[in-house]
């Protein structure tokens, strides 16, 4: 593959991974949905919100970049499930650890922690070879609870203008887009 084709491949891979992440978020929460903690507000985005958005978007970018680099190294990676799982496990583990480092606002903490737990569980499954499809790797947030729309709107505002979020798809990639 020629070097100039990599940006196209990276864009395609990024679009596929982000589409899977966003699609998986829109399914809503599960029976164990955590409470929101402090009452969510429709207040303008705070510095805490912006720092959290930057940290989370950076983690998403590293996740996408790692898969892009592995796909560049082996364009047939997604055709070999055993090899994909071996490559995906450490990438997912790093993603989980990166998400753990993010400091969420108080009214997002319970949702963030549930998401970190979900990503960590998928990473462990991939490491042990239990993930049975590439779809499950793309749906790492499926079933994770979503913060209320007021919080998601505030986080979407916080992500605006942050380069890491412009590259990754913003907070919608993990928590879904707020209702219009």
Ordered list of secondary-structure elements with their pairings:
Elements: H1 6-25, H2 47-73, H3 81-101, H4 109-127, H5 134-138, H6 149-159, H7 163-168, H8 172-175
Description:
The chain is mainly alpha-helical. Helices cover 63% and strands 0% of the residues. It has 8 helices and no strands. It has helices at residues 6-25, 47-73, 81-101, 109-127, 134-138, 149-159, 163-168, 172-175. The longest helix has 27 residues, at 47-73. The radius of gyration is 16 Å and the shape is elongated. The model is unreliable at 1-33 (pLDDT under 50).
Offer a quick outline of the entry:
With 180 residues, the chain is mostly helical.
Straight-line distance between termini: 42 Å
Please give the number of β-strands: 0
Q: What string, H for helix and E for strand, traces the elements in order? A: HHHHHHHH
Largest sheet data: none
Which regions are unreliable across 5 or more consecutive residues at pLDDT < 50? 1-33
**Tally of DSSP helical segments:** 8
Give the integer mean of the pLDDT values: 76
What is the general shape?
A: elongated
> What's the Cα radius of gyration?
16 Å
Strand content: under 5%
Helix content: 55-70%
Structural class: mainly alpha
């Amino acid at each position: 593959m020629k070097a100039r084709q990599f940006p196209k491949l990276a864009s395609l891979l990024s679009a596929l991974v982000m589409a899977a992440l966003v699609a998986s978020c829109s399914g809503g929460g599960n029976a164990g949905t955590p409470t929101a903690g402090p009452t969510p507000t429709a207040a303008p985005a705070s510095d805490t919100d912006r720092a959290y958005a930057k940290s989370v978007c950076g983690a998403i970018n590293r996740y996408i970049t790692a898969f892009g680099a592995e796909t560049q190294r082996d364009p047939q990676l997604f055709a070999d499930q055993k090899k994909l799982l071996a490559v995906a496990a450490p990438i997912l583990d790093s993603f989980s650890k990166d998400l753990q480092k993010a400091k969420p606002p108080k009214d997002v903490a319970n949702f963030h922690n549930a998401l970190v737990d979900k990503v960590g569980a998928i990473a462990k499954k991939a490491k042990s070879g239990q993930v049975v499809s590439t779809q499950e790797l793309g749906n790492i947030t499926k079933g994770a609870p979503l913060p209320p729309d007021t919080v998601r709107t505030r986080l979407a505002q916080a992500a605006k203008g942050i380069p890491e979020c412009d590259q990754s798809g913003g907070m919608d990639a993990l928590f879904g887009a707020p209702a219009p």
